[in-house]
Amino acid sequence: MAGILSLLDTGTEHLILAYFLLLNTFYFLFNLVSLAGILRYRRMVTFVRFGEIFRMPIVRPISVIVPAFNEEAGILDSVRSFLSLRYPVFEVIVINDGSTDATLARLVEAFGLRPSRSVFRRSVPTQPVRGIYRSAVHPRLIVVDKVNGQKADALNAGLNISRYPLFCAVDSDSILEKDALLKVVRPFLEDPALTIGAGGVIRLSNGCVVRDGQVVEVGIPRNWIARFQILEYLRAFLGGRLGMAKMKSTLIISGAFGIFRKDIAMACGGYRADSITEDMDLVVRMQKHMHDRRTPYRIYFIPDPICWTEAPENLKVLARQRGRWHRGLVQTLFRYRRMLFNPRYGIAGMFALPFYTVFEMAGPFIEVLGYALFASHVVLGRVDYPFAVTFFFVAVFYGTFVSLLAILLEEMSAHRYPKLRDIFTLTAAGIAENLFYRQYLSLVRAGAYLDYLRGKNEWGAMEKRGFVKAGQAP
Amino acid sequence: MSKTMLSIVVLYSFAYLLLLSAALFLFIFTRRLVVEGRERKDLALYAAMEEDLLQVLTAADPRGSARAFARKHRTHVRVLKQLLVAYREALAGRSLEPLGIIFDRTMRARCLRELRSPWLATRLQNVRLFVDFSSPDEAVHVVELLNDKPVVRLAALNALTGVASPDTLGIIFELFEKDPRPNFFAYSNIFNSLGQRIEPFLRASLRKPLPPEKLALLIEMAGRLLLRGLYRDVIRFAGHGNKELRIRAARSLGRLLAPASFRTLCSLAADPAWEVQAQAIRSLGHLKDRRTVPVLNKALCSPNWHVRYNAGTALAELGLVGVLQLQEIARQKEDRYAADMAAMVLDTLVLAGGA
What we know:
- The complex is a heterodimer.
- Chain A is α/β, with parallel strands linked by helices.
- Chain A has 16 helices and twelve strands.
- Chain A has helices at residues 2-44, 50-55, 75-83, 103-111, 151-161, 180-184, 186-190, 224-246, 262-267, 278-292, 315-335, 346-361, 363-380, 385-412, 420-432, 437-453, and strands at residues 62-68, 90-97, 113-116, 129-135, 141-146, 166-170, 174-176, 195-204, 209-211, 214-217, 257-261, 298-309.
- A ten-stranded mixed sheet of chain A has the order 3-4-5-2-1-6-11-8-12-7. A two-stranded antiparallel sheet of chain A has the order 9-10.
- The longest helix of chain A has 43 residues, at 2-44.
- The model of chain A has no long low-confidence stretch (mean pLDDT 87).
- Chain B is mainly alpha-helical.
- Among the domains of chain B are: 51-89 and 96-106; 293-355, Leucine-rich Repeat Variant.
- In chain B, helix 11 (199-206) runs antiparallel to helix 12 (212-224), helix 15 (261-268) packs antiparallel against helix 16 (274-287) and helix 19 crosses helix 20.
- At the A-B interface, helix 1, helix 14 and helix 15 of A face helix 1, helix 3, helix 6, helix 8 and helix 10 of B.
């Protein structure tokens, strides 16, 4: 019996080691691919004047769809930022998804909205629409007031009302940079037949200063939880997603800023109303749809259009958010399990989905298993301390190295953190996050998996502080 | 693997990772310092060059001044490129001439050499410079790139539109006809920027047995560029078996605004395909002809949302007559869908009036 337990123990140790090595090596490879991608992108866009797209006589109009639920704190800044986008033809559709706060009232007051007798086709079923508001001052703005569904339901209502062939889904607590649409739409102009979706980079607005719906001063927040998240977003978007897009393995275009072909999204039935992470669900479903019809397609990730969004600054809200993301990931991977290792679905089926299943879905369990194993060895007095300490530092520096690569990618792409001090702060965050933050998130994500199995399907409230205005202390 | 062996591997990994992380951090830090220093230097150089360029542009002899400018700044090609591209954006007409001279004297030869570079990005960058500064006799260099990868091909096409001569127009249309996977969006922008001078080439292409999607774009361009001389060529497609071609013909007829197209559009408004009906109704509105009112009224009661919407919009385009019709339809109770649509169009009119 003791022999079997010892064998099991050694086997688990080796499994954890192999997982650790493989995971970090994949991230390292993604970073290298991203680095090559960013260098190439920088050269490819030299002398491309995005203003030229603005002046093009024939462009593809875009509907910007903004679902909003209890967003009174930041909705006005966000809508102002969307209305001031530099793009020739677009409309902004804000869906007030049954907010219980003053979201609608603030919009009505700020933009001079009045009820409109618009009629639209209910192509995708949604919760009932209570009213449609338009503004004489801002003809591009449409506000839809509907009974509360979920984010996906609000997006579907926006899709029903939208008029244009491309739609851009953005979060109502986000701010788009002025040229973001011009930049992210490029694949749809250069490769219109194949491109079905494109995403840009999400950055955190914590620590930044906003004026007239635009981020005017970029900074690092004082809150360490927000700092860790800045680094996480850099790793995820510039390292992970760009690398995966280069390898044609994109499974997620963030719901905070993604642009899609409406006809394909509608052919898939729009967003799935019961989905926890509707963004990932839609991207996977669109890919499945294209593969099922044997139609070639491309999904792009563009490294320089930026969307700024607010991140939670306390562990409780962060845990709620990450728990939801993980439940959504598990839900989507379960839902599309038939695509897994199915050569019919190309790279998505043979690499992207297995990668997400092994490293993103099962990863937290393996990590938690490692911590539990270590704790049991401490209790049983079986810890080889020199080895454990060295291994711990290997883990810390492997993580730090990958974080530094992400900082390098940021420096080479958008280069938005202007102070030299920011590099030090981000590097310090890259080291410090290994001491508690990562372990905490692994526990949260492992718990979220259990929540999913228990059937938990709620969003959980997010606390919104709104953006820091010019003149206020960040 | 023995425990000792594993310990050694982990220890070495730690040492390597520590060194790698430190080296990477130093690289990022040093790179930032170098980039910032270079940016400061470039900015100062740019400001000095800009000052000189403004003097060139306002000089009594801009050609001579441009030559002197080129002599003075030819060693700083990187910054000079940025300056020329920026000023190409801001200037127009004869004031571009000095920029052309500076380009010729500082980077033209290099640019031509790099058009044949094995690196796609390099070729692309240089083709884009040609968009701004090439002259008609240089089109031959750009034509060579029309067999390159799609992104370079498009940039080359754009460059050719900048030096459009009958020869280059012929080349562009020939390329369009032969292109196995044309980017219709890009072609439509290219044709659009070429303007009405493409009429003879468009006519010749419309008479060739091209694939329907290519013909559709050509029909669309005839309407968009208001090439009324192509009216007969366009109306031919109103009876075509391909639905897409009928839609495009209906749209173009609505733009060409030939009174004779009234009958054709009326018959297209009764087409079996709702897409064709919707487009024909929209185009009938553009004609602003009172004879269209009964057809539009009928279309407002169509079971299809798009047809109803276009009919409402078309009635609104007719002015007072249309608005009165809309008000009447909005009041009636027999067809709720038509009433709702009429009310929505009237509502939009009020909003637009407010704006």
